[in-house]
Amino acid sequence: MLLSTPRPEKHSPLEDIQGLVVGTLLVAISVQFLHSADLITGQIAGLSLIGSYVSDWSFGAVFFVLNLPFYWLALRRIGWRFTLKTFAAVGLLSVFTELLPRLITIDALNPYAAGVLAGVSAGAGLLALFRHSASLGGVGIVALYLQDRFNFKAGWTQLIFDAGVFGLALILFSTEVVLPSLLGAVVLNIIIATNHRRDRYIAR
């Protein structure tokens, strides 16, 4: 006799709130690691860090603006719940990245250690967001859509985009900045590709 698989329970609003707060806080900590070692990362966050280094804009401001065009894809292809949660996560990350430098100061940090620590904390944060049907916008929206629609792993989509980001970084920064940054991005995307699977993360 075959036993039916129980339907997964939906997350409660309180569970979603704590998931968004914890996830974005972990990613904000990863940005703090990167800033302390003058490193960059991949995805839209990487473009935002590059933009903050070469302009007078803060990371939070650049990150928020660059994400705006991707909400259309999220709304059309994934749904309004995901879009609202993602918008909230992007807003939270923008706030946290503005606040953390006032609360935490890292005086000395090996760049390769910074890259790995940033990759691990960002990977854990993104997994928390994905688990609660949210992302940090940008490439994360495209990656989740491709994974749900075509079963193409989200981590691989992000890694492909990162290749373009780091190609730009090689033009603007020295290899002393790019290599540890690339290590952190690889760690991040391996964590996502290994741990984020649709059959494991099915609660909505």
Automatic annotation (TrEMBL):
The chain crosses the membrane at residues 20-37, 57-75, 112-130, 177-194. Coiled coil: none annotated. It comes from Actibacterium atlanticum. It is found in: Cell membrane. This is YitT family protein. It comes from the Bacteria. It is a multi-pass membrane protein. Keywords: Cell membrane, Membrane, Transmembrane, Transmembrane helix. GO terms for cellular component: plasma membrane. It holds the Pfam family YitT_membrane. Its main location: membrane.
